[in-house]
Amino acid sequence: MSIRNIHFLDPGSTTLALAKYLPLKKGLTIVTNSLAIAQLVSDMKHDLIFTGGRLQKKGKAFVGAFTANNIDAIQIDTVFMGCDGFLNTDGPTTFSFEEVLIKQHVIKKASQKILLCDASKFEKTGTYTFASFKDYDVLITNPVSNKEKEFVKDVKEVIYVNADQ
After folding, report:
1. pLDDT at 165
2. Cα separation, 102 vs 145, whole angstroms
3. 131: Cβ–Cβ under 8 A, 6 or more apart, which residues?
4. How confident is the model at residue 4 (pLDDT cuts 50, 70, 90)?
5. What secondary structure does DSSP assign to the chain, as a single string?
6. pLDDT for 58
7. How far apart are CA 45 and CA 57, in angstroms?
8. Mean pLDDT of all residues belonging to the chain
9. Cα–Cα dist 111/89, whole Å
10. CA 122-125-128 angle, 5° bins
């Protein structure tokens, strides 16, 4: 059995922050529809697969059927995905209807699904829900209240990280 190490990084500030740590790893293939993440990874020693598609000006993310079709052709081991919030919802949300299709295609393709967000997302909600919390294997966030922990109780594992770690 070979290990592919193919990881999708979703557009967003939290996934961009994660991408800055990629030089600590070796032999990865990074797939993204984020222009900012692609530019960052292009200067690293990792393989980069850029999905292409139509550029959504706000957020600098590639979206549309072309992007979705390209994602469908790739076997993804792990997706690292962000969101705009999830207050009083059953899953993460986004303000971009065009990103919903892409996020849903990636979730279907990935073996492991990781949601990254800071604690402010517990107090906000986007317009469109793109997944259910039960779709995620892991949520990584900073510490939140017990009430806020209830929002994400359907995620299989929640990891709380202090900002100074």
Report:
1. 53
2. 31
3. 91, 92, 103, 104, 107
4. confident
5. -----EEEE-SSHHHHHHHTTGGGS-S-EEEESBHHHHHHHTTSSSEEEE---EEETTTTEEESHHHHHHHHTS-EEEEEE--SB-TTSSS-EES-HHHHHHHHHHHHHEEEEEEE--GGGGG---SEE---GGG-SEEEE----HHHHHHTTTSSEEEE--TT-
6. 87
7. 28
8. 94
9. 24
10. 135
**Roughly how many angstroms between the first and final C-alpha of the chain, as a whole number?**
34
pTM: 0.93
- Alpha-carbon gap, residue 104 to 83, rounded angstroms: 13
What would the mean pLDDT of 73-79 be, rounded to a whole number?
A: 96
